[in-house]
Amino acid sequence: MTYLNHKLSTISTHMIKEVPVPRQFAFTIQENAMQNFFARRRANFFPASKEIALEKIIYSSIKLGKSFKLFIKYEILLTRDNGTKNQHAVYAIHRFGGASKNEFRILHYLWHHGWSGGKLAVQRPLYFFSNEKTIMYEGLSGVPLIQSLPKLNQKKISLIFSSIAEMTRKLHSMSVPFHIKNSFQKELQKAKAFTKDFLVFFPHRKTELSFIKRKVFSLKEQFIKKYSDSFCLTHNDFTLGNILWRNETQKLGLIDFSESCIYDPLIDLGTLFAQLDYLHLNQTLPHSFVDSLKRSFIQKYTRGGRKIMQLAERLNLYQAWGAFQNAIFTLAPAEKKHNKVLAEELINKALNYLQKI
């Protein structure tokens, strides 16, 4: 077994500690136990195989405050019916607070309704450990766009964003047979933690941060009441880090549905657009090109006469919230360098969006 230094997406200035795997989860990193687990479920997980061998377990076990996170990679060797052998990667994750059965249900539904082939894909869900609140899924190839985008030319980026707009339309048009509400209280708690983290670096901006939080959640509450009839399945963490690009196949992948729920579809657009603002302020993309990408995305997303009430107002709100979160991300413990200048620029961006509403 190998310890995996898995970069965190959860943000906090609290101490992150490497910890032993708790006894309840110990079987998930034991080779004999997991070899038996895969052997019993081989026909279900990989029906075209006749043998399965677990070759390696790589894991990361960390603690943040009172919350625990476990990330595991299983390297397995499959023998097909024709005798050929193929290596596969299977992952398991227990998130801070535990993975949700809803995430498994969403992945399962998407995988069986057009997201397992073609130009779009999600991770194939394999198993949900109910007691351990841990989800297991097959790996999905590709590079997160937050890493690959800066290396691409503008023409290529425009083509990719056109595909992302189509992907977003498809996701938001999915009629799922279950209703998973967004947790307003959970979002509010997250905002309080974000504010606390930011004030460690910028105590002089307490008044402005309080204003952002108060206005964002006041408007969110209004929008939930006003536009709930138009709510649909959203990813709800639609960042460039969760969108994969597979250059060799020209395909998109979407990962991490841990926050996915029935919510305002414009939260996904606002989150994505705020990422573009981040790339502009980080001097990766020019401002004019970012504006062009946003306009083209909206045209593609709303084509066919799709009408969205108060589109600009709702987008400004979610871009403000996205800018606020991005400001915190730049100060995360996982970041090699805390870019305080960029963080303050993002807070100013959030204030500017809110002033437009």
Write the layout of secondary structure elements.
Layout: E1 2-3, E2 16-18, H1 31-45, E3 49-64, E4 67-80, E5 85-94, H2 101-111, E6 120-122, E7 125-129, E8 134-138, E9 143-144, H3 145-148, H4 154-172, H5 184-201, H6 206-227, E10 232-234, E11 243-246, E12 251-254, E13 261-263, H7 266-281, H8 287-301, H9 311-329, H10 340-355
Parallel strand pairs: 1-3, 6-12
Antiparallel strand pairs: 2-3, 3-4, 4-5, 5-8, 7-8, 9-11, 10-13, 11-12
Task: Please summarize what this structure is.
By secondary structure, this protein is an alpha+beta fold. Helix content is 43%, strand content 21%.
What does this protein structure show overall?
By secondary structure, the chain is of the alpha+beta class. It folds into two domains: 2-138, no CATH class; 143-355, Aminoglycoside phosphotransferase (APH), C-terminal lobe (Aminoglycoside 3'-phosphotransferase, Chain: A, domain 2, Alpha-Beta Complex), CATH 3.90.1200. 43% of the residues lie in helices and 21% in strands. The chain is built from ten helices and 13 strands. Strands 1, 2, 3, 4, 5, 7 and 8 form a seven-stranded mixed β-sheet that branches. The longest helix has 22 residues, at 206-227. The protein is globular.
